[in-house]
Amino acid sequence: MRINCPHCGVRGAEEFAYHGDATLRRPAADAAPEAWADYVYLRDNPAGRQRELWYHAAGCHAWLVMERDTRTHEIFSVTPARDVALAGGGDVA
Amino acid sequence: MGANQLFRLGTGGSVDRGALLHFTFDGRGYTGYRGDTLASALLANGVRLVGRSFKYHRPRGILSAGPEEPNALVELRGGARREPNTRATMAELFEGMAAVSQNRWPSLGFDLMGVNQLFAPILAAGFYYKTFMWPAAFWEKVYEPLIRRAAGLGRAAGVHDPDHYEKCTTHCDVLVVGAGPTGLMAALAAVRSGARVVLCEEDALLGGRLLSDRRMIDGRPALDWVREAVAELEATPDCRILPRTSVFGVFDGAYGAVERVADHLAVPDPFQPRQRLWRIVAKRQVLAAGSIERPLVFGDNDRPGVMLAGAVRSYINRYGVAPGRRAVVFANNDDATGTVADLHAAGVAVVALVDARAEPSEAVRRMAEAAGAALFAGGAVTRVQGRLGLRGVEVTDAAGRRHALDCDLLAVSGGWSPTVHLTSHHGGKPVWDEARAAFLPPERLPPGMGVAGAAAGAFSLAECLAAGARAGAEAAGDAGFQTSLPALPATEEESTAVRPLWRVRGGRGKAFVDYQNDVGDADVALAQREGFRSIEHLKRYTTLGMATDQGKTSNVNGVALMAELSGQDIARTGTTTFRPPFTPVALGALAGHHRGRDFKPTRLTPTHDWAKEQGAVFVETGYWLRAQYFPRAGEADWLETVTREARTVREAVGICDVTTLGKIDIQGPDAATLLERVYINSWKNLPVGRARYGVMLREDGMVMDDGTTARLAEDRFVMTTTTVNAAKVAQHLEFCQQWLWPELDVQTVSVTEQWAQLAVAGPQSRAVMEKIVDAGFDVSDAAFPYMSCAELTVCGGVPGRLFRLSFSGERAYEIAVPARYGDALARRLMQAGAPFGIIPYGTEALGVLRVEKGHAAGNELNGQTTAGDLGLGRMMSKKKDFFGRAMAQRPGLVDPARPVLMGFRPVDRAARLRAGAHFLPLAAEKTAAHDQGYMTSVAFSPTLGHWIGLGLIAHGPQRLGEVVRAWDPVRGGDIEVEIVSPVFVDPEGVRLHG
Ligand SMILES: [Zn+2]
C-alpha cells in the first residue's frame, strides 16, 4: 500500500503506523463510564470505506486522517489530522 | 568422464560451444556448454532419469524446459550452499556444478521406496486426512516420520547460508512482465514515448518462445528481431532490463520480484548478492507472461522420455540437443504438431504423429508426410513401455486398432494455458474461454494492469506483437506520455487451433494430472465420489496443485476432469485462486540483510567506544547497546562487579551513560498546558530552572511511562522518557497536540540523539561537577539544590544542560552536551573524578541502586499497573483533567485489593530471590487460586548485604512484616520472604540532598 502524505508525498505504507477509527470523539471529562468504555475499547470493523488515523512515523511525524476502502486498500483522501480536528472532525475543504 | 554429449546436435542452438563446462550429477562427471541449463546438459548426455516422485517414488525425467517443471527437481551445490528442490530446467549450468537427485534410496535406478506404489490405495486422495486418524499419538511418533522419510523432498543445508541477499525498490512509469515478443513490443512502445520502463524476464535471455521456435519476423530469423529490440531497449537510459528476474506477486501498490543475481555462478562475484528482492512501484503494468503448455492425461504419462512438445522444440532449437532418437508426437493442437518438423529437421526420426483430432488440417497432414511420420488422426497413446525410460508406446487409432511403436521420446501437448497467475493476485477469478480452451484474465484486474499476448489468450506471433505494441502504448499513455503505435513487423501465417482432450480413455497405468504431488485422474475421481464438489476443496483434499510448482502444468487438466466428472462445465467449475508467490522465493531473499545481528538496527551511545575501552559488557535495550557492567581483572563474576560498582556509587562517585532515555523538546506558550494534560500531576506551578518527576497514563488508565521533565524557560520544557518508550511517548505527544488538542500553541520534537547525557552519582559528585562546569557557575547546594536545572557551558565553552536528579538516591547530577561531545565528556569526567575514586557503572548497578530505593522501572511499568499500584496514586491531581483520568477511576482500577508495589526480603538472609516468583500465603496450597501477586525486580543489595526484591502484592501496605512464600514453579524456587517498605536505603532522603 502507498500513502500520499500531504507533507512528504507518496510513501510506502511501512513508514506509517495505523491507529484505527478517526470518527471516534473523545468523551467529555465528566462523561458516563459507558461512554469512555465505548471510546477506549469498542471498534467497528467495516468492510468498505473507513475514515482512519495514520501516523507518519518514519517521515514527518504528522497524524493523518485517511479515507480508505478496507476491502481494496483504495485510498480516497489523506488530510493532516490537525486540519480535520480544527474543522471539527468533518471534511476539510 | 562420462558420456560425451552424445545427444548434442551437430549445429544449432544458442549455447556457446566454445565454452565447455564440467558438472556432476549423482557424482558422475559430464560436460555441457555455457548457455545450457542443467536439464539441457543432462539430456545432451543422454540422462533422462533425474528424480523420483514425491509420494510413489516413480522414476521421473524432464517434462518441461522452464519454470513450470514439476519433475526434474534436484539438490544443487553442497555444504552450506546446498539447495533442495531446484528445477533442473531453471538451473543455468556453471563450471563445477554438482547436482544430486532427490527422493531416492539407495540409488536413483534402484529405489526401495518405490514399493510405495504398492501402497498406492492408502496414499490416494485425502490420505492425509483419513488413513492415520487413530490412534492420535501414532501420528506424531510413527506415521509422520515414516511418511516424511518415504515421501520426502530434498534436504535443507542445515547451516547458515554464507551468501548475502539484498532488497531494492525502484519506481517506473511502465513495468513490463515478460520479455517474449509481446513484452519486447510493449517495452519498445513505452520507451519510445519517453516513459521510464522496467522490463523483467524470468529467463537469462530475452525473447521468450522466439528462443525456442523457428520463426521468421520481417522475413528474417526472429532472433535477429529480438537482438535489435533488445539493443534499442538497452540503449535507452530510462529502460531497466532485469533478466533472471521473476515477478512473483502483485501487492498493494507494488510488485514483488526476485532477481537471481548469482544463481548461475558457483559463488557470487565479490560484493554481489546471491539474489536481490525487488519492490517495483509502477504507474502502469503490462503483463506479458506468456503461457504454459499442458500435458495430456494418459496411463504412465510420467515416464522419463515423455516431454512437453514445446520443451522438445526448446531443447532442439535453443540448446542444440535431441531429447531422443525416435520420437512420437501426441497432441490436440496445431502449434504442437509443428514439433514434427523441428524433430525432422534436427535429424530425429519421427515415427508417428498422433493427433487426437479426427480431422487434422491439410497443413498438419503435409507436415507429417514431409517428416515421414505415420499420422494417427483421432488416435491416442494408450500405453507406455519402459519404466526408467521410454522404450515404446501403444497407439490406439480412430478405428480402435492398437499399434505398438518403438520410440524413446514422446512429445505431448494438450494446448497452452495463459499465465494468468498475477492477474488474480487481487482476488479476481480467471474466466474460462471455450474457444481457446483456456482460462483468461479476470475482468477485475489489479489496478493499473494490462494483459497482452499469450497471457491474454492471443497465442499467435502476429497477435502477440500487435497486442504488445498496443498494451505498451496504452500503458505509457495512461502514465501521461504522448504515444503512437509502433509499426508492426510482418510474420508468417500460423494456426493455433486446439480441440480439448482432457483425458485418454481406455488406457492402462496411472495417469497423472499433478506430477509433483503424484495426483492422478483416479484421485480426482475418488474425491468426486466422496462428495468434493468445490474446486477449492478438491485441491486441498487431493493436494492437486499444492506442490512447489503450484500446479502450473496440472491446474487446468484437474479442473477439466472435475467438470467432466460432475457434469458441470469448466466455466462453472472455475479455477482455484492463484496467490503469491508465482514461483518459490527463497526465505533468504525475503529476509535480505535482516538476519543475525542485522535483524534490527543497532543504536550506539555516544560513549560506546569509550565504554568498550573500559572493558564494558553490553546489553541490548530496545535497539540500543548499553554498557551493562565494567568487569575488572580478578572479579569472579558479574555479581561481584555489579556489587562493587553500586557500592562505589554509594560511597564515592560513578558515571553512567543515560543518553538512551528519551528526550523531547517541548516549546510554545501552551507547553505547560500540554504537560498538565498528559501528566497526572501538576506542571503550571513548576518554576523555570526546576525539574519534576511525572507519570503519564494511557487512555485506559494504566501507566504509560514516567520520567523527569525540566523547565528551561516559561515556554520551554525538556521531557525525559524511559528508554523503551521514547518513540511511543513522542508519538503520543504528537497525537495529543495534533489531533486531540490542535488549539494548543505548542510543538514537540524528539532530541534523544542530539544530546549525550551522563549521570554523575555519589557523595563526591559535586566535587567532580565543580571541575567540569565553567567558571562562574555555582553548583553549591544553596545555588543548585536537588531538582534544579540550568543551561550552561562546561569543559571550557561546550554548551550543556545540567540537572540535579537522582535515580540512585545519592547526590547526583545529569549533564547533557551535544552528542558529538559525549565521548570527550566521559573522558573528562573520569579525569576530574580520579582523585575521588570515580568509576564507570552500567545498567546492572543502575538497577541495583534503583531497587534499593524502591523506584519503579520497566519491570513495574509493564502496561498492567496503575499509578496506585506503584504507590504513586497520590500524585494524581484532583484539580485538573488529564489523559487517562476517566478510565483510571474505574472500580476495577481503584479496587483496594489490587496488588501494590512493596519491598521483599528473604527470611533466610542468605537466600537468593528470583523475579517472576509468585506470592502465596504460607499455609495455602500452591495453586493459582491463592496467587496474591508476583516479584517484579530483584537485586543483591551491597548496602544491606543480602538479596532484596520489589513486587506487587495484594493489600501490601497493611501487611508490613508479614511473611509469605515466593514460589517459582518454573525454576523450582520456594522461599519465605517478609513484606517490607519498598524503600530499602535512606528512606528519609538525607543522602539525596547531600
Ligand atoms: Zn509525512
From TrEMBL, chain A:
It holds the Pfam family SoxD. InterPro entries: SoxD (IPR006279), SoxD_sf (IPR038561). This is Sarcosine oxidase subunit delta.
Automatic annotation (TrEMBL), chain B:
The keyword Ribosomal protein does not apply. It comes from the Bacteria. Residues 608-880 form the GCVT N-terminal domain. This is Sarcosine oxidase subunit alpha family protein. Gene3D superfamilies: 2Fe-2S iron-sulphur cluster binding domain, sarcosine oxidase, alpha subunit, N-terminal domain, FAD/NAD(P)-binding domain, Probable tRNA modification gtpase trme, domain 1. Residues 509-592 form the SoxA A3 domain. Keywords: Oxidoreductase. Belongs to the GcvT family. It comes from Teichococcus aerophilus. Residues 901-986 form the Aminomethyltransferase C-terminal domain. The keyword Oxidoreductase applies.
